[in-house]
Design a protein that fits this description.
- The chain has 497 residues and is an alpha/beta fold.
- The chain has 18 helices and 16 strands.
- A 6-stranded parallel β-sheet has the order 3-2-1-12-13-7, sandwiched between helices.
- β4 and β5 form a beta hairpin.
- α12 packs across α15 and α15 packs antiparallel against α17.
- The chain binds ligand ME8.
- The site of ligand ME8 has 20 residues, from α1, α7 and β12.
Length: 497
Amino acid sequence: MSSTGKYYITTPIYYPSDRLHIGHAYTSTIADSLARWHRFRGDDVLFLTGSDEHGQKIERVAASVDMEPKEYVDKIVGTFKDLWEKYDISYDDFVRTTEERHYRVVQEVFRRIHAKGDIYKGEYEGWYCTPCEAFWVENKLQDGNCPDCGRPVELIKEESYFFRLSKYAQPLLQHIEEHPEFIQPESRRNEMVNFIKSGLEDLCVSRTTFDWGIPVPFDDEHVIYVWFDAVINYLTGASFLRDEAAFQHYWPADLHLVGKEIMRFHTIIWPIMLMALDIPLPKTIFGHGWLLMDHEKMSKSKGNVIDPVALADEFGVDAIRYFLMREVSFGQDGNFSRRALIERINADLANDLGNLLHRTVAMIHRYRDGVIPQPGAATDLETDLQQLAAATAGDVDSHIESLELNAALSAIWKLIGRANKYVDEAEPWVLHRTGQTERLDTVLYNLAETLRIIVLLIKSFLPKTGVKMWAQLGIDQDLEVCSFEDTAWGGLEPGTK
Ligand code: ME8
């Protein structure tokens, strides 16, 4: 991966209609690991998350518990922030769509597109799915229900503003064709291309039958459509209309990470809004698969959601982070099961990683009073280990560049496996018993040095584990400021206690 100097990554801004579940933690954990890795690579990272607070869905939920929408979302957003703290999600900014800075941007965007003639007034008559906050034309419905979530839709008829999506279908198709990295993975790109080719209708971008939204700046009767409002958070978070220098630096976004069900909003509506504004398009929109529970999508109504807080309390945050990134092939759906989680924890974390660390630290204590010895000459065994360590750093980097998180983790675990095998082959206990002092020094040093490199590679994915292992290795250097260059072999100072 070549460091380009900046990396702007975003998660979806989740609805504060309810507490978040493990599916939301999945997206944010991945985004966090990518953000941390890019910081480690030396990029100036802007990692954005937030909450999508307007719309009919939120208005109704709040009303159902006799609360004002703002009062309701304030309460839920607090639980988002607590969750992200628990999961070590290192976001740089959190945009709430009810903030004044966001209001201003949304209204200005609406005004500009209207002034250009790409937003016009009309009347909408058609279907609306409130859970998805999505408009549907009759022929896209499936058995009369929302084709995305399968739930019932409502017929609405109201005056509204329309956005000329249709005008931009051709330029968008051309952009997609010329930039294969724009929509990923490829299967989603094909779906989106087919969707565009099947014909884009102009999009309804305001509502008049409820109030909970940002008013159209020149027409108080209307509130701006919640998805139009929501995607603009990516501009708000990049200081658009607030700090021109910062905006020029961070924009365009490098990666919008989203679940596959909201790809249409991110790869069709959002890019067309940017085209209408003459703002460059984001580099990549990646639509990942779903985390399934017993092979079904999690949802509150099915009662099969998993609470990420309880899960982390039971197993530890890093175990969950590891499982989410390792078990699911990124881009595809993956199944969540307690059994698979426990197996991963036992095999990979306790057995492979835990054992390597404990054996190494214990032997350095037992044989060398806890001091890292000066290594002697390397044999083939050491050369092999050192070469793999060097190759692993490069492998992790290129897997991250192609967003293959599970492959990045398996590369690190291959090195862990190799180091465990090295212990068995080098037999330090025999070296100790037979008084081969220099050889024992070499083996202990090589193990400790491999562990140092493993910590550097692991810390973006498992931040707490990285910090704990670093402390156990007794290294003085501040782990926070270590960079990718520190993964070069030989960084560990002999004499370290
Ligand atoms: O859609 N597996 O918010 P939302 C994997 N406010 N990821 C999952 C998941 C699952 N089972 N369930 C949820 C919205 N997610 C809008 C977004 S963005 C401008 C506006 C994750 O609260 C996944 O990232 O419904 C999905 O896209 C997102 O949560 C939906 O969150």
